[in-house]
Amino acid sequence: MMHGMTRGQLNRMVFLENMLIGIGAIIVGIGLGIITGKLFLMIGSKMIGIDSLSFYLSLKALLLTICAFLILFFCISLFTTILLRVNKLIDLFQAGEKPKKEPKASVLLSLLAAVLLIASYYLAATTTMQNILIRILPVIGMTIVGTYFFYTQLSIFVIKIMQKNRFLFWRKTNIITISSLAYRLKDNARMFFMVTIVSTVAFCAVGTLASMNVMNKQFEEDYPAAISYTAMDNQPVQQQNLQEIKTELNKKGIPYTISTAVIKNVEVSSENTGYRYPIKDIDIISFSDYQNIAKSAGFDVPEKPLNGNEAMAMLSTHFQMEFKPVTYILKQDNIKLEAKKQSKNVAIPFRSGLIVSDELYQKLKPVKTNTYTGFFAKDFEKTAGIAKKLAPEGSSYASENHHYEIQVSGTMYINQMNMFKMMLFVALLIGAVFFIAAGSFLYFRLYADLEYDRRQYLTIKKVGLTDQELNKIVTRQLALLFFVPIVVAFVHSAFAFMALQSYYSLSIASEMIIVLVSFLIAQLIYFFLIRYRYLRNLKKSLI
Questions:
Q1: Which residues pair with 336 in a beta bridge?
Q2: Backbone phi, psi, residue 340, to 5°
Q3: In whole angstroms, what is the distance from residue 498 CA to residue 124 CA?
Q4: pLDDT, tens digit, for every residue of 221-264?
Q5: What is residue 48's predicted lDDT score, i.e. its pLDDT?
């Protein structure tokens, strides 16, 4: 500018600098990606459990990546030039000499930050499966806005209160630590905000996929039989299919027991379920059959036997909505069935209906009957690949050509595990990218302030600051810089996981703790590494 550069020329120069950096990053990134692609696939195949993933370079994927990142860097370069402020030359010369303005905080905005965060945490903690989709966007919005004002206003407000506490503020080196902290928080508020949000996304991405491990634990409860077969008619092919299943189980040497249940489909004249569409018929099994299936699966059957016209809703899966009592009136003799409770165990996978007393069951006249046959085995995983002709993917439902339903637990479990491992691998990559990005924000911001810190500590050292005190002050400030955003991200993630828990009947606490502790350990390693390098560079400049 001293040599006559105009505002337009300056903007073009900054735009070109950013674009050159972006293009260089794309070329180097894609080049390293191609070189390390085979190693990446080898690691991925081990994690997923597949023998080998062949390397294939897709031209379409390559062009899509280049175009996407070119657009991204173009937008960044454009916004950089728009947001670039050019002050007067005298202001630029004196920028390093001017003292920083004292950080100030608005009481109103500080209060708003506290209210938004507390409200979002409350809504997340009280989320149910019914309202999670309604609450998710408002909670995310409130959390983001609350986090921004937490760093820019509330944190400064809290430090101001700490400074008024003489016992705390005037104690040893606290006066330096707390005073510097107020300026650091004000200067780094936006960076802390970005690190917190990015870290929260990383934790939630990995945590959400890690929680799917609970689905695998829940698999046995949702599919009590190793193989479930429901015949929709009494044609000879049904017996042939059952015999084929028995033959394959015997060939594999899998010991099994069989439990059957006759499902009666009866007509309903009216019902009071609150469903949008009326129900014309309903499936019913006897309590004895339900009890036999549950015992064969190894479940406890704490339910008391049903008497008279008592009924109980069949649990079809542990991922269904919250149960509400329902009343059915059958066309047969206007029999009134009140299902005031739900069975604790799944009897027939993904089949809703009622369980009634044996006495009432014998009286019912069905429109049609289906026969359920469950093959129960201890090691259901060994059934993988059985009945491929009947169900290539492990499950098949009734159609015009096949009047049967079948679920092979082993095949379905293996397919689900492969999908889970693939998704977890992708989530770990996303989490790693976001975590490294968050660490990069901290790293570069820290070294951007190195010159200012050098001048500050050099001045303090002249009045007697020892190396031990310097290490203590720097460690405290770095710890706050590194762990305040992470701790806030942990709190955000913890409440997000509380909302996620509404999807599962089993606890996901252990999976979530493992994810958060893993990230904490990674952050600790990163912190000690950066602390060592930063102290070494700082002490070199103080000599």
A1: 329
A2: -90, -15
A3: 7
A4: 788 888 999 998 888 888 898 999 999 999 989 999 999 999 99
A5: 64
User: Would the CA dihedral through 466, 468, 474, 476 be positive or negative?
Assistant: negative
Confidence check: pLDDT of 54 > 80: no
Whether the pLDDT of residue 25 is over 90: the answer is yes
The bridge status of strand 257-272 relative to strand 326-330 is antiparallel
Q: Is residue 142 over pLDDT 90? A: yes
Distance CA 394, CA 397 (A): 11
SS3 (DSSP) at 231? strand
Query: Distances from the Cα of 45 to the Cαs of 54, 192, 237, 417, 504, in angstroms?
Result: 10, 36, 41, 13, 29
Residue 464, classified by CB atoms within 10 Å of its CB into exposed (0-12), middle (13-18) or buried (19+), is: exposed
Q: Find the length of the chain.
A: 543
Q: Across the chain, how many H-helices and E-strands are there?
A: 17, 10
Strand partners, 265: 283, 368
3-state SS, residue 342: strand
Q: What is the mean pLDDT of residues 131-136?
A: 82
Enumerate the β-bridge partners of residue 282. 266
Q: Is the overall model pTM greater than 0.90, yes or no? A: no
Distance between CA 272 and CA 277 in Å, rounded? 11
**CB atoms closer than 10 angstroms to residue 21:** 13
Count of Cβ atoms closer than 10 Å to residue 542 Cβ = 14
